[in-house]
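Milestone 3.1: sequence recovery, worked example.
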């Protein structure tokens, strides 16, 4: 019985810590959540490759990439943030949905969700059209 309680508490703590990590970015960073039920899937790998093509563009738009998988596995790239949590994975996807990309704005709201690879061009276009981004660009000039 004690083991079940400990496991339940660890699961809840892990889920809460992940949510708190996302909240800590509010008003500082935009987030791209790349969620997959399989870290080796072709679409997941294509999405990660696409997002790595313009690191300068990601940085200038205050973007942080979270790669969310349901299971623990080796981390091949420590430049970005990885989250391993079945419950978190399930909370952002519908049942049977193997892949999803979500853009979360500076205000913490979901700005875009899709089940296909999101190109950096589409991502940057969406962000650059946002009023907060327009304000950032205006203030930097």
């Amino acid at each position: 019985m004690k083991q079940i309680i400990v496991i339940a508490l660890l699961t809840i703590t892990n889920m809460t810590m992940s949510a708190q990590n996302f909240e800590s970015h509010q008003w500082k960073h935009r987030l791209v959540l790349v969620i997959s039920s399989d870290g080796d899937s072709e679409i997941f790998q294509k999405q990660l490759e696409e997002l790595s093509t313009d690191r300068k563009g990601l940085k200038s738009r205050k973007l942080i990439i979270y790669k969310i998988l349901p299971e623990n596995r080796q981390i091949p790239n420590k430049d970005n943030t990885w989250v391993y949590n079945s419950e978190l994975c399930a909370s952002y996807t519908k049942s049977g949905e193997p892949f999803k990309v979500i853009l979360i704005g500076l205000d913490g709201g979901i700005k875009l969700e899709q089940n296909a690879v999101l190109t950096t061009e589409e991502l940057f276009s969406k962000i650059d059209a946002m009023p907060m981004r327009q304000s950032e660009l205006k203030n930097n000039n």
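The first strand starts at residue 30 and ends at 36. Residues 1 and 28 are 42 Å apart (CA to CA).
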